[in-house]
Structures are given as structure tokens and as C-alpha cells.
Design goal:
Elements (H helix, E strand, L loop, with lengths): L1 E3 L2 E3 L3 E3 L8 H9 L5 E7 H5 L18 E6 L3 H13 L4 E6 L4 H4 L11 H14 L4 E6 L6 H16 L4 E5 L14 H9 L5 E4 L5 H11 L3 E4 L8 H10 L10 H18 L4 H13 L6 H9 L4 H13 L12
Parallel strand pairs: 3-10, 4-5, 5-6, 6-7, 7-8, 8-9, 9-10
Antiparallel strand pairs: 1-2
Helix pairs in contact: 1-10, 3-5, 5-6, 8-9, 10-11, 11-12, 12-13
Length: about 325
């Protein structure tokens, strides 16, 4: 059981907020496989405070989409508090403060991962937001801005501010801001945080690409839960597979080609409801490249999917590689 404020989860794996990916369709697909807490993509504080971004289809909260979290980033405590209140009014069940995003256009404006250099400002934002909302509050951070001693000190100061400021859960990514998504995620500091703050709800992040990765990291870190990020794109099975392993069951069999097809088709149709072809098809390309990782002819699936501009062409590619697919020989290994 993972508890974040008044939100109780039976699976300690959360679907990370990923801009450009975690729209309503992806959240609903993940829920089909047992994910209980999902997020929309990262939102800027001003756009959220003025309700502009909340009018977009991908940020709408539907009845079946609970509990759902909203993640915001910014540098002004008052604006961040207003944005948090707007999320709650809009139906979000949890607010997450992003001090972790390493994307250049975010960092150069002092937002996201740049906040790892500003412990005093981080504390002010935490305190202001916590005073404005009653729902669960979480914080997403990295292990530092860089590997300097000053950055390490700032990291611990932000952790202290979160614990004392009433944050219900701290999400910690094992890379620095300057690392972006390269290199290895360092889980050693995560274990240090667990030892220093045994009472805090801690959620780990970084390099969790399979159910086996997740179970191993949970055991090694002593954390309360983890966030599935890149490893869940086109791979909703990671949630049901993790649940099986945590329950002491064997890893489920790989989904059949037709099982994969049915999920891909369902995901695409949900996207087309809000983004008709051809734009919806082009948008879905980034998902099919990830879904194809489980197909024995991965490269060929991706090639045909990425060259399909119309819905008809895309459907033809899906039929070829999923509905009508016959392995070239026993085992169907990739050519």
C-alpha cells in the first residue's frame, strides 16, 4: 500500500507526468493495466493560474480519470499557489511542484531543474502552495543541479524544506539537472534520503524500463514507490507485470501480437476523438515506435508507421504487421 495524503494505492508505481505523452488517452490506457495514479503533462504556473492551459483537451479531467495529479513549474510563490488552486478547482486530486525538468527552455528561465540551485525560493514556493491547498502535495526534484558540493547542500536543504513544509510525497530522480537523461541514474543518494527521513513518503525515479527494474529498485532503495516514465510509453503492461512480481507471481507471458494490436487500436481511437486525422495519426507516431518494441519485426513496423501520413495508410500498416502478421519462421525473431 502506498499512501500520499488521502490517496491510497495498492500498486506502488505511479505514471509520471510526461509533456506531450500523458494525455487523457495514455492515462486511460495505463489505468486498464492497473495504474492507479496518473498525471497530465507539465504545466507552466501562469498559464495554469489563468486557466488557459486547462482548456486544452489533454488537460481535461474526466470521471474515470481519478485520482489524477497536475504538475506545475514556476518561480513566483504567489503565482504557483494560484496555479495549484486552479488545478484543484479543475478536478485534479493532487498537485506536484516540478523542480526537476532539465529541458533547456525550462531551465534557462529559472524553472524546473534550475530550482535545485534555489533552496530558499523552493522553500517559499512549498510553503505558499501548501497554505493554499488542502489536497495532497508532492514535490519532484533531482539529486542536484550538478555534482558540486554547493549543489549537494542545496539538495538537502530542499528535502528538509519539503519534509518540514508538509509535502505529502517527494519524487526524486537519480540524475542531476545537467545530466538531462544521459548516463546512469544514481540511486545511492536515494537510499541516503531514506535513512535521513524514514518518516517521509519517498518515490524514486530513473532508468525504470521493465517490471524487473522496478521490483529491484523498490527492494534496494527502501522507497515507498517509484515513478514509471519513459519505460511506460507504449508499454502499459509494465504496471500489470510489476503487480504480478510484487505479489510473488511469475512474470506474465508477453502480450500476443493481437493483444498488442487491440491496445494500439484503442489508444489511437481515443486520440482521434480529440485530434482527427491526419494530425492525430502524426501525433500517434511517437507512441507506435514504443509499442513496436514488443513486436518481433520492430524496425519494419516503425518504418511503415513513420511513413504513413493518412489514417488509411496507418491502418494498412497496422493490419500488415499485427492483424495479418505471420512470423517468417519459428520464434519470429527480428530480421
Amino acid at each position: 500500500m502506498l499512501k500520499i495524503g488521502n490517496i491510497e494505492l495498492t500498486l506502488p508505481v505511479i505514471a509520471a507526468p510526461l509533456s506531450g505523452y500523458t494525455d487523457t488517452a495514455m492515462r486511460m490506457i495505463n489505468r486498464q493495466f492497473g495504474c492507479e495514479l496518473t498525471f497530465g503533462g507539465l504545466m507552466l504556473d501562469k498559464s495554469t493560474a489563468y486557466r488557459k492551459v486547462l482548456q486544452k483537451p489533454e488537460y481535461q479531467v474526466i470521471e474515470q480519470d481519478h485520482p489524477v495529479g497536475g504538475q506545475i513549474c514556476g518561480t513566483d510563490p504567489e503565482v504557483m499557489a494560484n496555479a495549484a488552486a486552479a488545478l484543484v478547482d479543475h478536478g485534479y486530486d493532487l498537485v506536484d511542484l516540478n523542480f526537476a525538468c532539465p529541458v533547456a527552455k525550462v531551465v534557462r528561465r529559472g524553472r524546473g531543474g534550475a530550482m535545485m540551485k534555489e533552496p530558499a525560493l523552493a522553500k517559499a514556493i512549498i510553503d505558499k502552495v501548501r497554505s493554499r491547498i488542502a489536497c495532497p502535495l508532492s514535490l519532484k526534484i533531482r539529486r542536484g543541479y550538478d555534482d558540486s558540493p554547493e549543489s549537494r547542500l542545496a539538495f538537502w536543504q530542499i528535502c528538509e524544506a519539503a519534509v518540514k513544509g508538509g509535502v505529502d510525497a517527494i519524487f526524486i530522480h537519480g540524475r542531476t539537472t545537467l545530466q538531462l537523461y544521459g548516463g546512469q541514474s544514481d540511486w545511492n543518494i536515494l537510499r541516503e534520503v531514506r535513512e535521513k527521513y524514514p518518516q517521509a513518503v519517498l518515490i524514486g525515479s530513473g532508468d525504470l524500463m521493465t517490471a524487473e527494474n522496478i521490483v529491484q529498485r523498490l527492494a534496494e532503495s527502501g522507497f515507498d514507490g517509484v515513478i514509471a516514465a519513459r519505460g511506460m510509453i507504449g508499454n502499459p503492461w509494465i504496471f500489470s507485470e510489476t503487480r504480478a512480481l510484487l505479489n510473488g507471481q511469475p512474470l506474465p507471458a508477453q502480450p500476443t501480437i493481437m493483444e498488442q494490436y487491440n491496445i494500439i487500436r484503442s489508444h489511437l481511437e481515443m486520440i482521434l476523438q480529440h485530434s482527427p486525422a491526419p494530425s492525430g495519426v502524426r501525433y500517434f507516431r511517437k507512441f507506435i515506435t514504443k509499442y513496436a518494441r514488443r513486436h518481433p519485426q520492430r524496425k519494419r513496423v516503425i518504418l511503415d508507421a513513420l511513413t504513413a501520413d493518412t489514417l488509411s495508410e496507418f491502418n494498412t500498416a497496422l493490419d500488415k504487421w499485427y492483424v495479418n502478421y505471420q512470423p517468417p519462421y519459428a520464434g519470429g525473431t527480428e530480421l
